[in-house]
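Input chain follows. Return C-alpha cells only.
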Amino acid sequence: QVQLVESGGGLVQAGGSLSLSCAASGSSNSIYAMGWYRQAPGKQRELVATITIGGRTNYDDSVKGRFTISRDNAKSTILPQMNSLNPEDTAVYYCNAVCDGMVYWGKGTLVTVSS
C-alpha cells in the first residue's frame, strides 16, 4: 500500500509560478514511477508529467517548457515547478504512483489561475 499526500495548490495570476509536492508513504521504497495528472471542470483527467525511479521524465505537450518535474527518492517526493501558468492550467492536480503493478492516487490539490 502506498499513501500519497499532495500540497502546494492555490490561486495564482496568469504568468505566475507555483510548486506542488507529493509525499509518498507506506511501501514507497517499491515505487517505480510517480507523476502528476490534472482534471479541469467538465473534462477527463489527463497526464501532466511523470518521472521514473531512474529519473526518466515525460511531459504532456501542453506543459513542455513550462513545467519541470523532479523526484527525491530518499523522501519519495516529487516537486513539480510550474511556470508561465495560464487559465487553461486551472484544474485539480493529482499525484500518482506506480508500485508493484498497482496504481495509487492522492486526493488532489486545486490550482486556480486567474486571468
